Structures are given as structure tokens and as C-alpha cells.
Amino acid sequence: MNVSSPSQNVSLRPYRDSYQSAVTKNVIVIALGLIINYINGMLIHTFRKHQMFYMTPRYILFIHLVVNDMIQLTTAITLYVSSYVFYKINVSVCLVIVSFTIFTSSNSPLNLAVMAVECYIAICFPLRHVEFCTIKNTYILISWIWFMSSIDVFPDIFLLIATEPGEIFLSTILCKRDNLFRHPVSLKKQEVLYTIYLVGIWIVLFYTYLHIFFVAKAAKSSSGDAKKARNTILLHAFQLLLCMLTYVYQSIVRSLVYLFPSSILHIIFISYIFIQILPRLVSTIVYGLRDQMFRQKLQMYLLCTICFKL
């Protein structure tokens, strides 16, 4: 089958996987997706079963990130498998899938920035935390995250409708963003918007980290809530780096293909696994499981499930 990146502008039509190789790669991708979504599903179930999480902005933002990662992972794997099974799919179907992919890709860094600000307020302004970080304000911020992400996709949809004939929605294409939103204005807008978002988010992360660092230093303590919050923001920065890998996926693949042209098929597959799929585990490992309260509730749920089956 033809090999291509389902979400990036890398199309290698002359190269084909053997039937066995194609089946193996798709099984691996689907298996990893199911495992990661199952773990994230347990986190969501744990959140739903305990009322205390509903009353804590930190956990609400975290579970929103987990749900967002699940949607992103599902859409990415759907595009990957469809590129093997169908190669080209209907433009209308592609538009729906790509729109969800863009939404969730933009949501992740914005969500991380909001979580960093919440940590900053909790440590630097503990007396104002209850006032600022209310449940209502948390859901308002989540709504703003989705609104900001809509700026990345809705203008492209309107431009597609305005500049392309209606028959295009009945045709089929290789489903990736640059094939769907191919107008030069869309391409330029995407580049400018990502630059603005990422620069702004990095500024927020550095600002919050430095202020928490100074608070911890002034308290002459390397332990406690300040240290934990400082480490959490560092983990947010690590997560943001992984988000940025998605944006430079095309450049990474092209560079590796240039260096190792004989391994082109393996490079694309391995790059896809490490850049598109495995980073979805990060939210679960570095934030969910390291939180003592969330970890305890998750362990109780797992133990109850095991005992029930026995």
C-alpha cells in the first residue's frame, strides 16, 4: 500500500509496504492506541467516581487534557489506518476528522499554559487562589481554550467553502491538512498562529516557573508545595516540547529520510509512533499517576475491579 503521513505533508507514493509489513504496522498502531486510551479511560472513570475531583480546578483541567489526548489519539490513528485501507477518503469525512485533530492539537499547549498559571496562583498567591481558581472560572477558561483553538480551524473551513467548488465535498483525497486546506492564506495563517501560540505559552511557562522558584528560594526550602509546583511546570514544559514535535514532524522525517534513504518506510513508521502516539502517555504518567490523591483513588479502583472479577 502507499505510505504517507496521514496528518502531515509527507507523501511517498512510489514506496509501498508489503502486505505483512502493512498489517504489522497497523496492528502495532491500533494496539498502542487501545492501551493508551484504556489507561486514560481509567483516569476518566476515577475522576467521575469521586466528587472531590469535581470541586478542584486542578483535576478538572487535568481530565480535560486527558480527554483531549484521547480524541487526538483516536483521530490520528483513524487517519493512519484509513491511509492504508482506503488511501483516499471522502472530503466531507476528512474535514470532520481533520477538524477534530486540529482542535485537539491546539488545545493541548493552551491547556498546559492554564495549568501552569493555576500552579503559579496556588503558590505565589495562596490567599487569592480560592477567589481566582473557582469551578466557574475553570470552565470559562476551558471554553476559551476551545474558542482559541477554533481560530485555527474555522477560518480554514470558511475559506475552503468560499474558494472551492461544491463538488469537492463529494470527491476523495489523501486525508491530511495541507491537502484539505491548501489555500496559501490557510498555510500562512497556520504558520503565524502556531508561532504566536507557542511563543506566548513559553513565556507563560517561564514566567510562572521563575516566580515559583523565587518563592521557594525565599522560603529557604527545597521541599513542599513550592517544589512540587515547580517540578510540575517543568513537566508542562516537557509536554509542550512534545507538542512542538508534532509541528516539526515533516522536517524531522525529511531530515531522517535524507540521511537514511534506504530506510524510508521504517523512518516514517518509527517517527509516527514516537511523535504522534507515545506522547499521549505523558499526561497520564507525569501528571496523573504522580499526584498522590489521584493515584490512591486509581489504585482503589483497580483493586476493587480485581476483587470483583475474582
Provide a concise account of the structure shown.
Helix content is 79%, strand content 4%. It has 310 residues and is mostly helical.
Helix tally?
A: 13
Biggest sheet overview = 2 strands, antiparallel
Shape: globular
- What is the C-alpha radius of gyration, as a whole number of Å? 21 Å
Class by helix and strand content? mainly alpha
Number of strands: 4
Low-confidence segments: 1-14
Order of helices and strands: EEHHHEHHHEHHHHHHH
Strand order of the largest sheet: 1-2
Strand content: under 5%
Distance between the termini: 45 Å
Estimate the helix proportion, in percent.
over 70%
What multimeric state do the chains show? Answer: single chain
Let me know the average pLDDT.
Answer: 81
Model description:
The protein has helices at 19-49, 51-54, 57-85, 91-124, 126-132, 135-163, 177-180, 184-218, 225-247, 249-259, 264-277, 282-288, 292-309; strands at residues 2-4, 11-16, 89-90, 172-173. It has 310 residues and is mainly alpha-helical. A two-stranded antiparallel sheet has the order 1-2. The radius of gyration is 21 Å and the shape is globular. Mean pLDDT is 81; it is low at 1-14.
Q: What features would you highlight for this structure?
A:
13 helices; mainly alpha; 4 strands; 310 residues; two-stranded antiparallel ribbon
